[in-house]
Amino acid sequence: MDESSSHSPSQEPGVVVNEVFHSIQGESTFAGEPCVFLRLTGCDLRCRWCDTPYAFFEGRRTPLSQLLKEVERFGCGLVEVTGGEPLLQKHSRLLLRLLCDAGYTVLLETSGAHSIAEIDPRVHRIVDCKCPSSGESSRNLPGNLDLLGSRDEVKFVIGTELDYEWARDRVRQAPWRRLVRAIHFSPVHGQLSLQTLAEWLLRDRLPVRLGFQLHKWIWDPGRRGV
Predict the structure, then answer these.
(1) Measured between alpha carbons, how far is residue 54 from residues 7, 36, 43, 62, 152 in Å?
(2) Burial 21-44 (b: 16+ CB within 10 A, else e)
(3) Inter-residue contact 198 to 210 (CB < 8 Å)
(4) Rounded distance between C-alpha atoms, residue 6 and residue 12, angstroms
(5) Which domain CATH number covers 187?
(6) Which tens digit of pLDDT belongs to each residue from 110-147?
(7) How crowded is residue 86: how many other Cβ atoms within 10 Å of its Cβ?
(8) Whether 39 contacts 55, CB under 8 Å
(9) What whole-number distance in Å separates Cα of residue 119 and Cα of residue 59?
C-alpha cells in the first residue's frame, strides 16, 4: 500500500492507521509488558488463520507527527508497529525511526514476506515464518533470515503437526538460530492446544520458546483494541 499516492508531494508524510491502543503485549519476549500498538492498514497475505482481517482495508490516513502525539499521551515506553503488514506502507520505516528517536523501545511485527533491510537498527524486528497451514508459506522471503541479529525474534505459528515438523526442521538447519534474541513456536488459538505443542517441543528437545497470545487469555479472543 502506497498511502501517499493520492496526496501532493508537499503533504506531511503519513500512514494509514487501522487502530491505536494501549494494552498488554501478548507475544514475543516482551509479553506481559504494557505496550502501545499502532496497527497499520493493509496486507497482501491471506493466512487461513488470520485474526485481524479487519485491518486489510479499514483505516484513516494520519500524519506521522499526529501519530507520535497519540502515542505520547499513553505515557508508555514500549511501542509496537504491526498490521496488517506495516512494511507495505511507504513511510512505515520513517515512522519506526521517529519512534526510536523519541526514546521508545520499538517493536516491528512483520509477516516475513517483505524485506526487513533498511529498518532502523534500534528496532526489534519480530519476523513471522509462515507454516504450510497458513496457505502462505511460499511467500516467506529467504533473504530476511540472513539479516537477523541479536535484537530480532522469529515466530512460527503452528496449526498442525505438519506445521510443527516443517518448522522444527527449519530451526534445526538454520544458521541464524543462535544469532537471534528468540525463536517462538505459538499455536493457532483454538486450533492446537498449548499442551500438545509443549509435549512436541519437549519430546524433540527443540531450543525454542513456547509462545501463546496472552491477550486472548485475558480478554475475549474476538475483541479488538487489546
Answers:
(1) 24, 19, 10, 18, 27
(2) eebebbbbbbbeeebbbbbbbbbe
(3) yes
(4) 13
(5) 3.20.20.70
(6) 999 999 999 999 999 999 999 999 999 999 998 999 99
(7) 27
(8) yes
(9) 23
A 10 A CB-CB count for 224 gives 13
Let me know if residue 85 belongs to a domain: yes
* Stated pTM of the model: 0.91
Q: How far apart, in whole angstroms, are the C-alpha atoms of residue 112 and residue 10?
A: 32
Q: pLDDT per residue over 170-203, tens digit each?
A: 999 999 999 999 999 999 988 899 999 999 999 9
Say if 174 falls within a structural domain.
yes
- Sign of torsion, CA 27 37 135 137? negative
Q: Which triple of cell numbers denotes residue 137?
A: 508459506
**Region class of 171: left (phi > 0), else alpha (psi between -120 and 50), else beta:** alpha
End-to-end CA distance of the chain: 25
Number of domains in the chain: 1
153 occurs within a structural domain: yes
Residue 101's domain comprises 14-218
